[in-house]
What we know:
Blueprint: E1 15-17, E2 26-31, E3 34-43, H1 50-66, E4 71-80, H2 87-103, E5 107-114, E6 120-129, E7 145-148, H3 154-162, H4 172-179, H5 183-191, E8 196-199, H6 204-215, E9 219-222, H7 231-236, H8 245-254, E10 258-260, H9 266-271, E11 281-285, H10 290-299, E12 305-311, E13 319-321
Parallel strand pairs: 4-5, 9-13, 10-13
Antiparallel strand pairs: 1-2, 2-3, 3-6, 4-6, 7-11, 7-12, 8-11, 9-12
Bound molecules: cobalt (II) ion (3 copies).
One cobalt (II) ion (CO) is lined by residues 24, 39, 41, 64, 201.
Amino acid sequence: MQVLHQLPKVRDADLLVGFESADDAAVYRISEHLAMVSTVDFFPPIVDSPDDFGRIAAANALSDVYAMGARPATAMNVVAFPSKLDISILGEIISGAVSTLDSAGCTLVGGHTIEDTGIKYGLSVTGFIDPVNLMTNTGAVVGDRLVLTKPIGTGVVANALKGGRISLKAARPVIKSMTTLNRAASEVAVELGVKGCTDITGYGLLGHAMEMANGSKTNFVFDSAAVPFFDLALELVSKKSNRPGAIANTREYLGTDVIIDESVSVEHHQLLTDPQTSGGLLLSVNESKVDRLMTRLQERSVHASIVGSVVARTEGWSIRVE
Ligand code: CO
Ligand code: CO
Ligand code: CO
């Protein structure tokens, strides 16, 4: 968050990853081979189904722990709930979240609820890692290939769903993706010694890619034809009314740091900054390991794609899309 940059720098030798690099979670060393990973995330409902919303919120919160290569251990609810609503709705949200936490081997241990005008739900998650396995958004190296582990387009689909322009049934495949953990992708990446990783969330593919390119002092080149998009999102994004405001806001924020070739279609152009909820991991992988990584991901039912490469730092731009 922007406001954090105004705070004085933290001086603690055991803080391995703080907020300075805009990474996914904080990492604090406990002993030589053990570090704690902490993150928090919460937001208003994006689907009109409490159970699905709980599952999505949990997968999304756990994702920042997986993006660091860590194993989640405990979680706490962060809840805002209107007193006029039926409390059973909150029960459904939490039971959805717990079923996702269960599949992550993560235990709900508490939380905090306040009264508010609208529902908000999320989780603070604590995980653990041996620091030698740490993946960060500063770990991309020139010559690496970029691998994306989930399709893009959840923002457009959630926006159309909210506006009643598509049914929950039509959105099912996209909801399924948002409730899917990044656990298998993270475990495979750690197994192969991947060091550069982030998850794709609110700033879209290009926004998070830019943080990683800049953090790693490299430039990224994407092949837009290789980026996986949800078919439904490609259809919906052609209509302006379906585009979340964040698409244009992020594009404006990225400015001239991102160069998009004229050959890239309007639909791809828009979806490249579509805000994702519980998006996939963007992995920066040594070229010699990428085939093995893709095979291992497939074995774990992760449908990943090679979407680009890491090139030497050139001033004037950070990301090019061809
Ligand atoms: Co993240
Ligand atoms: Co986050
Ligand atoms: Co990270």
